[in-house]
Amino acid sequence: MKKELSKYIPMIKMLAQTFGKSCEIVLHDLSQPQSSVVYTINNHVTGRQIGQPFDHLIKQVLLAKDFTDDYKANYLICTPDKREIKSSTVFLRDSTDKIIGAICINYDLSALRNIQNFCNDMLMIDTETIPSEIEPFDHVVEIVDDLIDKIISNTDVATLKRKDKIELIHFMEKKGVFLIKGSIDKVAEKMNISKVTVYSYLDEIKKMEN
Predict the structure, then answer these.
(1) Any residues with CB less than 8 A from the CB of 170 and at least 6 apart, and which?
(2) Is 52 left (phi over 0), alpha (psi -120 to 50) or beta?
(3) Residue 195 domain-assigned?
(4) Phi and psi based region of residue 204 (left: phi greater than 0; alpha: psi -120 to 50; beta: remaining)
(5) C-beta neighbour count of 85 within 10 angstroms
(6) Does 56 lie in the same domain as 10?
């Protein structure tokens, strides 16, 4: 783990102890998007494991209407067993103002739902829907462009077989990269393939998923 990120671990431990076992905290290293999780505490909440990729940074954080000052608070995710999780995410910058990581707080609302009237403030969630493609603000484009760079730069695209290229496109599609207007052009350029090829891969992915 990078020293710049390890300095946040005492704060993460303090927050986890403050809010108890229902509070999971995950530290991401965004220089390695495909395996960004580098530290977790109370990971029984969602089962996040070190070495896993990010899940919600683009779809529910960067594309949220009220995303500002590098953070998004109180958005809703659900676990495979249908538990509601209230999540908040803040991006971390280095001394050069470059995004290097993120801290995600995931709070299991199961117990609090039983006393919802008493905990209305604690249970405030964002039900914003995400459009198929939007034209985001400049600061969002900067972060997503950086993620695209890191996702692709971690792979020697010149040596990839077709199925590997589809797998890489699929990873970016699942993470919401292509919700950003112009991202298909950028990915095509960086992978040295045509935009038409990216669209054909995405069509193939949709057929496989259906």
Answers:
(1) 201, 205
(2) beta
(3) yes
(4) alpha
(5) 20
(6) yes
For residue range 80-105, list pLDDT tens digits in order: 999 999 999 999 999 999 999 999 99
Look up the domain containing 52 and give its range.
3-113
Kind and range of the H or E element at 183? helix 183-191
The verdict on 7 and 100 lying in the same domain is: yes
- 105 shares its domain with 196: no
Residues 6 or more apart whose CB falls under 8 angstroms from that of 99 comprise 30, 70, 91, 92, 93, 143, 146
Total structural domains in the chain? 2
Which residue in the block uniquely carries the two structure tokens 């462009």? Answer: 145
Q: 151 and 51 in one domain?
A: no
Q: Report d(CA 13, CA 19) in Å as an integer.
A: 10
Helix (H/G/I), strand (E/B), else coil: 70: coil
d(CA 176, CA 158): 24
Across residues 32-53, what is the average pLDDT? 95
Shared domain for 81 and 8, answered yes or no, is yes
13 in any annotated domain: yes
pTM above 0.85, yes or no: no
Confirm if 169 and 98 have CB atoms less than 8 A apart: no
Residue 38 scores a pLDDT above 80: yes
